[in-house]
Amino acid sequence: MDIKQMKYFVEVVNQDGMTNASKSLYIAQPTISKAIKDLEKELNMPLFDRSKRQLVLTDAGKIFFQKCKEILTLYNDLPKEINSLLGLETGHISIGLSAVMNMNQFIHILGQFHQQYPNVTYNLVENGGKMIETQLINDEIDIGITTLPVDKTIFHSIPLYQEDLRLVLNKEHELARYDEIEMHMLKDEDFILFNEDFYLNDKIIEAAKNAGFIPNTISKISQWNFIENLLSAHLGVSILPEKYCEYA
Questions:
Q1: pLDDT exceeds 80 at position 198
Q2: Is 206 within the bounds of a domain?
Q3: Which residues, 6 or more positions from 132, have their beta carbon under 8 angstroms from its beta carbon?
Q4: DSSP secondary structure string, 78-135?
Q5: How many domains does the chain have?
Q6: pTM of the predicted model, to two decimals?
Q7: Same domain, 132 and 198
Q8: pLDDT in tens, 139-174
Q9: Which conformational region is residue 236 in: left (phi greater than 0), alpha (psi within -120 to 50 degrees), or beta?
């Protein structure tokens, strides 16, 4: 059974006979007749009551006719739906976003995307970079926006922008008077960091070890605003993307 046979059958019913269907489809009548017989043979039941002079569907034929119309409608709509999907004309995207990211920069990018594809809806899920990678692997999100590095054997990555890291501390901190600070100068400081789910945490610990010490981390947090509050309260120091320095 194939789409062509279904088309022939539906057209025969719509045209009240094979003769009119043959003219409508520009196909020889024997070809249509054979297609109908092949369908009946495969279904193992008659679709037409041939004891009548006029074209009459059997009960099975009536059911098959309705199903064929549904299938043909889906079949005819399929190219349009695929083109919409591939062309991103419509659809839904789930985006995993790291709390470390520059939100203003991302919103600008998202705004440009929305202007180009206004019918695409999106859902934003905030997590750490490691969780975002897990969600991608499990098909829980479509796109992840996070910091490098990523496993290039698993993921395809596209750089959006580059941002330096800066030491962030209270303005009254004794180190605030320095224009430049070496990593080893922080060995006696209390660190306030993002939690282990963030690659930034790994980078800071690695940099500290390279400077000869293990950072004394007094708090691990998943939200930037909590880190900001602790820094304002003079409870420690942190190393954050440069953009956060505008708000610190």
A1: yes
A2: yes
A3: 96, 97, 98, 141, 144, 145, 146
A4: HHHHHHHHHTTSSEEEEEEEETTS-HHHHHHHHHHHHHH-TTEEEEEEEE-HHHHHHH
A5: 3
A6: 0.53
A7: no
A8: 999 988 888 777 778 888 777 777 788 898 888 898
A9: left
Does the residue 66 lie in any domain? yes
For residues 178 and 238, state if they share a domain.
Answer: yes
Which of helix, strand or coil describes residue 217? strand
Please report whether residue 230 resides in a domain. yes
Q: Is the pLDDT of residue 87 over 70?
A: no
Rounded (10°) CA dihedral 225, 229, 231, 233: 180
- Is residue 221 predicted with pLDDT exceeding 90? no
Domain span at residue 240 reads 165-246
Peptide bond into 149 cis (omega under 30): yes
Task: Please indicate, yes or no, if residue 154 is contained in any of the structural domains.
Answer: no
- Helix, strand or coil, per DSSP, at residue 44: coil
